[in-house]
Amino acid sequence: MADSPEVIEAIENKDNREFFLERVKTIPSLIEWANDEIKDDKEVILNAVKVDGGALEFASNRLKDDKDVLLEAVSQAGWCCCYASDRLKSDKDVILAATKKDGQVLYFASKELRDDKEVVISAVTNKPIILKYASFRLRSDKDVAIAAISKGKKSVLEYINQELLEEPEIQDLLKE
Q: Could you tell me if 58 and 80 lie in one domain?
């Protein structure tokens, strides 16, 4: 794509805010070729991430720390929270929204959120194997274990506290 007509046009218009304001609505990745001022323009970046959350990669650091921008981006593509500021990787609203799209984002969440039951259940419901990134405390939580096993069956067993596997409710799930 680097030598496509769209990219050439974007490079030629790298200082043209109006060009990017419209073009990112159809080709969000063009933001990569905008100047730094445009990459720091909230309206332009919001237009891009509404279509493709991955466009967040090219936003300014200031906008990677903007909760509105992050919530919009992760609602489109949960995984893009990997570009979030450390502050927003610790924001429960952002991480919860991201886990609803992609449980894998628990990997990027702060240590505190890896120990938050609501966040972990949301993540393992979406991607059971991500249980391996939950806190050890929550790997011993019956509700978390049930959520993970219900979706992942045997693939998650090695990450669950082994004593929980003897619980009748969990035994029943394993028989299904």
A: yes
